[in-house]
Amino acid sequence: MKIIKNLAVLSGLVLASTSASAVEVGQSYFNVEYSHMTMDFEGDKANPGSVFFRVGKQLQPNFAIEAFFGLGLTDDEIYSESFFDPFLGDYSFSASAELSRAIGVQGKFVAPINYNSDFFFAFGINNLDIDIKLEECASAFGGCDSLTISDDDTDITYSLGVNFGKLTVSYNMFYDDDSDIGSVEISGLNIGYHAQF
Which residues lie closer than 8 Å to 87 by C-beta, 6 or more apart? Predict the structure, then answer.
């Protein structure tokens, strides 16, 4: 979590704001977002797509609490190779990654831009379940074999973003730690629909 200290300073600036959020105190909101994720496995990267649903409540003029749930939409290749081997014939190997599920809760610090737009910094905890699919093919053996590895882990999460009316855009760090499959960093650039109720 290399930039947490800097974000802590930023959250202090947000808290220092005395203006009201675009969402009124006591009001609830929800987001539906597409996330272009980056999964970094010690230098080997994949960019799967996912969808996130958020629901929150404005507790104070500059503070809200929200929960989110995410599901994978597409997978993306981490690594692949292919070659001819005298014993195996035409050989190929590939690995791809996809978000299976994400669930989390965050405290959200809000600084208004104008009457219907605001900047926010959110900080909390989440649990992610990712799937890594390995596929190996060899023509000499007449086909392919595949194996899916699932990794489920919990880590600190934070988000930086803006709401412009009905549009929400944010950068999210979901996971940055050692897991059962090695050192993993998972982030996402999210864009979606923001509404109040």
Answer: 140
Q: Hey, what amino acid is at 31?
A: N
| Cut 0.70: pTM above it | yes
pLDDT over 90, % of the chain: 67
Q: Are strands 143-164 and 167-179 parallel, antiparallel or unpaired?
A: antiparallel
Q: Give the separation between CA 125 and CA 185, rounded to whole angstroms.
A: 15
87-106 as b/e: b if 16+ CB within 10 A = eeeebeebbbbbbbbbebeb
Q: Look up residue 30 and give its two tokens.
A: 């929800």
44 CB contacts (<8 Å, ≥6 apart)? 78, 79, 95
Q: Which of 97, 46, 106 is nearest to 72 (CA)?
A: 97
CB atoms closer than 10 angstroms to residue 161? 21
Residues whose CB falls within 8 Å of the CB of residue 33, separated by 6 or more in sequence, listed in order = 51, 52, 53, 54, 168, 170, 190, 191, 192, 193
- pLDDT for 24 equals 76
